[in-house]
Structure formats: C-alpha cells, structure tokens
Amino acid sequence: MQLAEGSELDDVVLPDEEHVAGQLKFASGAWDGVVSHHVAIRETDVAGSLFAAVKAVAAGGWLARRQFARLYERAKSTDDLLSAIDSLIGRIRESSIDGGRLHKVAMHLATDSAHRGPVKLGIALLGLFPADLHREVLLTLGRHEEFTLYAAVALDNGQDHADDDLWHLAKQVRGWGRIHLVERLAGTERREILDWVLREGFRNTVMDEYLAYLAASRGDLLAALSADEVDDQLLRATGDLLMALFAGGPAQDIHDYTDGAAVTRIYLTLMRDRASDLQHLLAVGAIRDFVSDSAPSQGWPDGGWDEAARLQFAAECQQLIGRAGWPPMALEALESADPVMFWRAERACNILGISTLHTLLQQLRVEPLESGKWFSAVRQVDRDSIGEVIDLAVEVLPLDEVASGPGRELGLGRQWAAHQCLDFLVQDLDKWPGVGWPLIAASIASPVIRNRNMSVRTLAAWPRSAWPSDAESRLRQAISAEPDQDVKQRMSAALEGRPLD
C-alpha cells in the first residue's frame, strides 16, 4: 500500500466493504472502539481455535495452503476477534511455535489479506516481534482507523519505548484511532507530547469527551493557564475542554477533575479581555448552564464548586454573554454555508436568546433535506409558529416518495435524507394534537421502521378526538401491510387505545 505522508485514509474503502442500502454500518474502527470501551470482555473459545490454526500453519510452513486457508477463514468470520487477541497472544508466548515461520505468517496476513479480520490478526501477531522488523507496515496500516488500535498495541508490544511511533500515528488519525492512541500516550512523561494532547490531541471526530479529562489532567491545564503568557491555541483548547467536561458522557468528566473550578475561574478572567469569537461564547454558555443547574444529577463536584463560587461564575458569564457584539456576529455566521460555522452560530443564538426560526425556514425552503435544521426549527416552535413549520414541510418534502410502503430499512445514509427529516418533525408532534397529519400519514407508510414507530407513538399520544377522519382507516391499512411484528403490535395497541409497550 503506497501512501503519501499525511494523506487522509478515512475515505479509503477496504476490499471487503459491503455497501447494502439501509444496512447498519459502523464507521472505521467504531465497533472495536465500542467493544474496548463499553463492553466487558468475555471468555470464549475463539482464542483456542485461533491458536490451533496458527500453530498448524506455523508447523507446516506459511505456504501450507490448507492450514493457512483455515486460519484465514477463522479470522475472517470471527466477530469478536478483539476479545480473543490477548488470550491468543498469551498462548503463543507460552508455546514453542517457530518464530521465523510465525513472522512470515503474520506479515502475509497483515499485508496480503483482502479481509479486515485476517489483517487485524496479522498485525496482532506482528506485536510478538521487534517493531524494527516491520515498523513501516504498522505505521501504514495504522493510519486507517479500522486498524489503528491493533497497530498501536503491536508497536507498543514490539519495543521498549513506543511514544514516538504512537505520537506520529496519532497526528494522522482523527476518529477512534486518535482515542486509542492518546489513551496510551497519556501515560508518557514527555512534556512535548502531553502538551500536544492538551492543545490538540484530545480533538477527535467521535466525541471530545472521551479524551477531555486525560488532556486536562495529564496535560496539567491548570499549570498551563497559570503561566505568564497564555496563547490563543491554549485558550481555545481550554474552552473546548471545559465544554466536554461539563457535558459528561462516556469517560471521566468535571466530577473527576479536581482542578475544574480553578481552571474555570482563570478562563473567565482571561475571557474579560480576550473573548473574541463564537467558540469562546459557546464555552462561556456551557459554564453558565452548568453553574445555573439547581440540582445536577451527580451533585456538585468537589474542589471549589461551592454556592458562592457558582454565583460568581454565573454573574461573570452573564456579563460576558450580555456584550453587544455577540448578536451581530452570531446572525452573520448563521448565513454561512459552512455546516460547522452554522452549527456554532445556531448554538450561539440559543445562548443569546435569539430565535433562528425565520432564518432556518428560509434556508429549508432552498435546501429542504437538511434534517438538523428541521430539528432546530421544531425545537423553537410555539402555538403560533408550529403551523408555519408544518406547512413548509408538507410543501417542500417529497412525502409521496417517503410513503412508498413498509419495509425493514434502517434509513441510514444520505439516500434516506427525507426520511430522517420526518424523524425530527414527527417526534415532537405529540405535543400538538391534530397538527401535522400529512407528515404522520407519510411516515406510517415509510419503508423505514423508525419512521413508522415514530408516527405510531405520536398518534397514540393524541386524544382520539384529535385524530383526522381518515387516521383510523390509514392505521388499519398499515397494520395489514406491516412486515415487522413488533411494529404491527404497536400499531394495534394505538388503534385500540392500549399502551404501546
């Protein structure tokens, strides 16, 4: 695989990629990321069968075609390869398998396989040998998020000090690969690496929350902010880290970060003179929302979050948010064609108490398949404006195409954009009995299961007196055509006035 240094591999299609319309597809590395972070590793017999297959191939030479084919098929068809790797490697270390032959097998799997399972197995086996023998192979394969975790472990196992290789690789990946690598780099004592993690390395395309605590704590954010000079990059990183820590989620958060209040105090002090862009405003808004919560579910963190401090932080945030320059900046950014800038502007307007509904409806008239904008619009409606949103949706969305008949589709991908728009529209119509029936009628005949479930839930929430005259007959037709037994049961329950679940 010949690749230019620094080239992006996120869009590289692997040879075994299957493109099936509506099929649930994980982003590269996502399945292994979820398993490694959120699923308890269980003991299975996979490691034993893989060990037997590896031993047979190594004993017969790597060109023993029949044994190799069995090993390849086993690695290709194993869904829980990650859970078996540690046990497999342990068994190999305790065995007398010929190292020279095993290295040839590993290289053949890693570099010549057409399926990701055998490639992952090959990379893992390479970790049994000195990294110098195949460093470029690992660094190349590791640049694809699907293989980064395996390459990182192999690089770590194959040498005493892997920091330089892991850091080099971490700069070239952005998703789950970045998360895996930074989690390993967080154990280093090298200041230049920890400073990179603090300022930049925590950013990833999954969730910054996975790495925010590691960056702030191991990068010593408090000490960095206490220096005589705080540069713009560090200031920006501080705001983004605080937002991630306040958000909580899949990893340690503000409740684990003992320097949180001290960092917040310094950040707000710096913001008095240096608040200059919408990202700063978003961070200040996140602080305000956090300290204004009357009863956070986890209680208040230890270390400086007493009532007096919270009141002071809230007052400082309000002063910063009340500055006259923010509204025109936010409204201008709201017109941006850049989706990231638009998202930032929309959130800023929310902090400032500025309605974006009119702008959103103008934009949706031109580009109606932007589901996120429908979500933002519906979130802002009241009794006087809900009709305007629904009328526009009926006018601009291809409801006849959506109502093509029931199926078992998951509705993922750009080809299902109209169906995704209906999700955000219909899910809130339970608050408005009798409003939006054309959208519900289209959803109830959609091939996407989620659309049908959403429409039934909304209908069930409406009093029967609010049902349109043809709602009952439409629902009966939908029941007779419904291919999914669970959805059919919910439809029947809604028709009969019973609880859906």
From TrEMBL:
<protein>
    <recommendedName>
        <fullName>Limonene hydroxylase</fullName>
    </recommendedName>
</protein>
<feature type="region of interest" description="Disordered">
    <location>
        <begin position="473"/>
        <end position="501"/>
    </location>
</feature>
